[in-house]
Amino acid sequence: MQRHVLSVLVENEPGVLSRVVGLFSGRGFNIDSLNVAPALEEGVSHMTITTYGDSMILEQIMKHLHKIVSVIKVTDFADTLAVEREMMFVKVQAEGPMRGEILRTVEIFRCKVVDVSSNEMTIEATGDHDKLEAIISLLQRFGIKELARTGSVAMRRSKKAD
User: Fold this and answer.
1) Residue span of the structural domain in which 41 resides
2) What is the mean pLDDT of residues 63-71?
3) Neighbour count for residue 30 (Cβ, 10 Å)
4) Among 19, 44, 118, 144, which is most exposed with the fewest C-beta within 10 angstroms?
5) In this model, does residue 78 exceed pLDDT 90?
């Protein structure tokens, strides 16, 4: 199954989030991540929805989203050059000699240590989905104690001048 990142502009009104999520759950589609925040335009919110499915499932999702009155615009970034980022906090076991190795990993991935105690470190990482998966994979050997992720935000890339 293919990963899809959808950008959905909606009118910022009560119940719109519930209608969008209900569309997914009512048809048996899963939302992998959901991020909602106000858009630049007053009274408009920007939803970034990550889901998995084949082209037929995605076509169905897109058609149903367009039927919701509060939905202004839907974009699937699979067909568009886009910038996508996600942020996460990872709390790892960090005692003794492991601390130096963790700090090297943090440096390689250009992450930040945002909290430290005598036996734990909390790391902030920002990047695309694959980068965060790679960081998690490397940090697992130290013992991940807690993980919090924002979900993706995405935006169409600007056109380059010829």
Assistant:
1) 2-79
2) 91
3) 11
4) 118
5) no
Is the pLDDT at 161 greater than 80? The verdict is: no
In a shared domain, residues 9 and 71: yes
Tell me if residue 24 falls in helix, strand or coil. helix
Sequence-distant (≥ 6) Cβ neighbours of residue 151 within 8 angstroms: 32, 33, 34, 35, 48, 50, 86
Instruction: Read off the pLDDT of residues 3-22 as tens digits, 9 standing for 90 and up.
Output: 889 999 999 999 999 999 99
In one-letter notation, the amino acid at residue 122 is: T
The CATH number of residue 119's host domain is 3.30.70.1150
| pLDDT score recorded for residue 157 | 87
Say yes or no: 125 and 138 in one domain: yes
DSSP category for residue 29: P
- Same-domain status, 72 and 12: yes
Phi, psi for residue 6 in degrees, rounded to 5? -110, 135
